[in-house]
């Protein structure tokens, strides 16, 4: 077990509704197209597969997809979309869990690698990705860039969502790179619900070092799934690291 928060049944049941904006075609379709292009004719493995938001439409494109997921309740929600035969999932953490086979593509989306809350675990996640890749295969991470530049002196939090239904903000520890996302949601009966999730943020250059330790080389970094250039002002990145073609295909 890693230091990741564990999504329980209540959270898993509400996850898709709470994340509805991430299912919008203008958000999801570019991600699926990007990943399908990298997978080509080969199989793909998703770390932190969750309820199958990306994996199910990617499989519908003809890509054989497998997954690793820490939370059994999240897998139970995924099973409403795809059977175990259609989309096999191993319950375990993405830093150490090993599944059979080698993959043309391993990927982790929507900041989920930050659920691993120590640097050591994040390093092991990159190594686990490399372990599952065929020579020439690629590891893709979608990750936000921490909004620390927006902190004025004395400020303790950065808002990331403000609407009549949802207010969210992040708090950061600059020393340990630990953070917490705080969510306040207005329910239909007018009451409010609070939830929080914990993470460790990772800088892009730190990701590159983790990849190098795993024997992977940066191939491409863009600001989003549509391929916008990554700049010093980008608030997110999609990064692609590749396993060398002459790498050993052994554990």
From TrEMBL:
Report domain Methyltransferase positions. Answer: 45-137
Q: Which InterPro entries match?
A: Methyltransf_25, SAM-dependent_MTases_sf
Q: Which SUPFAM superfamilies match?
A: S-adenosyl-L-methionine-dependent methyltransferases
Q: Might you name a Gene Ontology BP term for this protein?
A: methylation
Q: Which GO terms describe its molecular function?
A: methyltransferase activity
Q: Which UniProt keywords apply?
A: Methyltransferase, Transferase
Stored Pfam families: Methyltransf_25
User: What name does this protein carry?
Assistant: Methyltransferase domain-containing protein
- Source organism: Micromonospora mirobrigensis
